[in-house]
């Protein structure tokens, strides 16, 4: 249910503030890591998962075995994927009443709290999940994302490191650690982490955008361009990918193609400032 991350090349901004993206000017790129959110434990909205048929089926399972916490946990996840957060919370609460040591339910409830903007409760639930099972990589990654979005990059870095030390196969750990390396200006390390994330989640556009931003920061526009194009091919509805591609066109002096890509980015996200600013620079 994680929301997509932003990795974009924009006007120079401070990387110390949470939610700010990687940046560039035409004369010289000075990039810093960014993302507004994270990748997927659950999809943001999944109508199939939240359909009345699916919910009804899961409800039947619960009715046939009302003392099984897993039934509530699964239905809670389905509610969460459908954006029905209050109902999801009720199910995770029910699962935890039956089994107070159900660490997966704590982590799932924490994710719902995150999307409700209740970060303190989210951290408390992630802490509880880790206390019950110190080997649970998902909880470290989830808590790390809360810390990262709050600008607590050192704590976030430690959590992503811990998940990686646990031999996680979840590409988000490497991706998010790469974002922190990027924010620190350590682009070679960031590129390595994004590459690992890609090897684990090759169909996700976010790590390609992230790696492309770091390539651009090092002046490697050809590899950056390849990564931005791959991100677009994987998902053509991400405004940042088009804006990143546009800035490489702009750097090459191809204003016509740059304007076309900026226009596509602005069409996808009319409020996305880098796209609007880029259009103003390249139109005509």
Automatic annotation (TrEMBL):
Gene3D superfamilies: Tetratricopeptide repeat domain
Species of provenance: Phyllobacterium leguminum
InterPro entries per UniProt: TPR-like_helical_dom_sf, TPR_2, TPR_rpt, Ycf3
Keyword Repeat recorded: yes
Coiled coil: none
UniProt protein name: Tfp pilus assembly protein PilF
Lineage: Bacteria, Pseudomonadati, Pseudomonadota, Alphaproteobacteria, Hyphomicrobiales
Top-rank lineage group of the source organism: Bacteria
Keywords, in A-Z order: Repeat, TPR repeat
One Pfam family of this chain: TPR_11
First and last residues of every TPR repeat: 69-102, 103-136, 137-170, 171-204, 205-238, 239-272
């Amino acid at each position: 249910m994680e929301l997509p991350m932003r990795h974009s090349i924009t006007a120079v901004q401070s990387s110390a503030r949470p939610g700010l993206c990687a940046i560039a000017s035409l004369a010289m790129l000075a990039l810093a890591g960014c993302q507004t959110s994270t990748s997927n434990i659950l999809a943001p909205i999944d109508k199939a998962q939240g359909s009345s048929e699916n919910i009804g089926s899961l409800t039947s399972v619960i009715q046939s075995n009302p003392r099984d916490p897993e039934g509530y946990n699964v239905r809670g996840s389905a509610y969460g994927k459908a954006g029905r957060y209050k109902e999801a919370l009720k199910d995770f609460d029910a699962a935890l009443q039956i089994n107070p040591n159900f660490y997966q339910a704590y982590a799932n409830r924490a994710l719902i709290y995150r999307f409700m903007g209740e970060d303190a409760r989210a951290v408390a639930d992630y802490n509880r999940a880790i206390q019950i099972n110190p080997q649970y990589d998902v909880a470290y990654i989830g808590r790390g994302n809360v810390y990262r979005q709050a600008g607590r990059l050192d704590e976030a870095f430690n959590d992503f490191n811990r998940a990686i030390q646990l031999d996680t196969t979840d590409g988000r750990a490497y991706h998010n650690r790469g974002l922190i390396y990027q924010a620190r200006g350590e682009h070679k390390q960031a590129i390595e982490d994004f590459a690992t994330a890609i090897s684990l989640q090759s169909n996700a556009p976010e790590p390609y955008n992230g790696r492309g931003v770091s390539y651009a920061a090092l002046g490697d526009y050809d590899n950056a361009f390849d990564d931005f194009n791959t991100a677009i091919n994987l998902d053509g509805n991400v405004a940042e990918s088009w804006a990143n591609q546009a800035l490489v066109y702009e750097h090459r002096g191809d204003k016509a193609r740059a304007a076309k890509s900026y226009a596509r980015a602005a069409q996808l996200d009319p409020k996305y400032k880098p796209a609007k600013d880029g259009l103003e620079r390249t139109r005509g």
